[in-house]
Amino acid sequence: MPLKTASHISQLDGQRITGINYSQLRALCRISGRRDGRTPPSLKAVESQASQERSRSQSQGKQTQEILISHAIKALKKIPIERIQQDLQAIHKVLKIFPCFTTQLSEEVLHKISSIAIVETWERGQIIYGHNGFYLILKGFVKPYTYEDSKEDQKMVAVGVGGFFGSFEPPYPENAGIITQYAQTLEPCEILKISHSGYDKLKKEMLVQDYAMKRSLIQGCQFYLDWPKVSIDHLAKLIQLRTFPVNQVLVKEGRVCPFVAYICEGECSILQDIGSLINPAKKKGGGIKSVVVGRLGPMESFGEISVLQDQPSPCTIVTATELEAGIIQPETLQGIDPVTISLMLQTAQPMCGKLSQEEKYKEYKRQEKSKEWDHIKKQVLSDALFYNGIRQGCGKWTLNRGPGKTTDK
Length: 409
Known about the structure:
Elements: H1 6-12, H2 22-30, H3 41-76, H4 85-95, H5 99-102, H6 107-113, E1 118-122, E2 127-129, E3 133-139, E4 142-145, E5 164-166, E6 182-185, E7 189-195, H7 196-220, H8 229-236, E8 240-244, E9 249-251, E10 260-265, E11 268-273, H9 280-283, E12 290-296, E13 301-302, H10 304-308, E14 316-319, E15 323-328, H11 338-347, H12 357-387, E16 397-399, E17 406-408
Antiparallel strand pairs: 1-7, 2-6, 3-5, 3-7, 4-6, 8-15, 9-14, 10-13, 10-15, 11-12, 11-14, 16-17
Helix pairs in contact: 3-4, 7-8
């Protein structure tokens, strides 16, 4: 619809239409090339170019998706036991394209699904029943139906690549009529299928592997080696796996530990405040001074005594690297049996040694001198390189694009 000119607007002043900002409309009409409602040629060129870019981008995206699906179909036609790593990766890439997978399944399950999914080839006009699995259309079109009404009464829209029906798990009886139960192919189709039995078996295998890993995590701690199997099983059921970034404070000195932790991978630094031993004049304006009194690594634990006896931690624990650990929340330990509680208290070791104030101060000074010396060495090396015309990170030789050739700068 062309814009109104100024003369048109003046005629409407006595009969204004609700919802129109007439002052802005007048300003638009004064713009060159807009007086007669026509789009300026320069703007047309920009709009045309933008439209072409969108079309090109959509075309490239569609081609990429078709290539990925083609590779996945080829991999899915292999027997699951014969699939190599490249096949599983091709299937996984396609599964990540479709929200019906990414919104319902975790990344871990999505990886495992690649090993049990299969593809079925259907001719035109065939009926596919979805009561025993989940179906994703990779090629072709189908018309889905439910069992709520007769086929003739339903006006369902045909769905193509990315469309799905059925379910990962058998529906509860009250929801059986809601889930699409079958579809009719409108042309030859390639359809990915995940059966209820395969998905259920996969979940059980993952639970067994997860539980075995948690048990080994506890048993791996040297002080838990002689624990009875029953008590280890009790703790394994309570563990949650977590990943912590580097330099994250897990426990603060003087506070109760937020959880019991069993380290799987990574390291933690154990710190203690040196308190009033620091000269107040030097401390002014700075943070709390701490000294590293120990390290915690894989197959070690902390927090048992603090959590079980509600005692403040004697030290601070900070991640020195990215940390993978199994943690047990305090509230989950409330219902555990007294024997396991007693074993935990007997097994737990102090998180840090009992250093005197003088020993902590000496250790603090040693660590500070070590940091200062490291800084001096780096500075001397940097200066030596700079004054000799050498910049760090820039090598003398660079590789040429051609194979086996180098070029001297």
